[in-house]
Amino acid sequence: MSNTNYTEPIDIEYVENSTPLQSSKINTDHYNDTAFSNNSSYIINKIQKQIECLDMELYSFGFTFEDISQTSPHKKKDKYACADMIRTIIDDRAMMRTMLQKGYLPIRLLSKKTNRSPKLIASFEGYVVMASLILTGNYPDLKPYFDYVLYDEL
Description:
The protein is an all-alpha fold. It is about 65% helix and about 0% strand.
């Protein structure tokens, strides 16, 4: 172990002219690249399995993950509208139960509760179903993608 004095002044010129890895003065020679790649492949496999499980759940609603990824909301106002719809569904246990048992989104009921047009709800139906399933299901690695729904932040 080296006797590094952590109170020594920082050489600003060294920091500005070096890469972030160099400026941190960490010896990375002892890191094993395979350990990093094994960890990242584990995470990727874990996420892939969650997407596969979600895809099977979506199939019962007549959707696929790929279909939904192509029709997800892109405009900020549409994302806010979807977030409102998703929150309404996950907060209303009876509506969520109906959706899960019947295999479809109760568009008319959701329209009444959110004051959104049935046409708007139908255009994002798959996305709303998917987000509701992720936020109420066992998808811990997919949930962060929908934090904006829970915390109202875009």
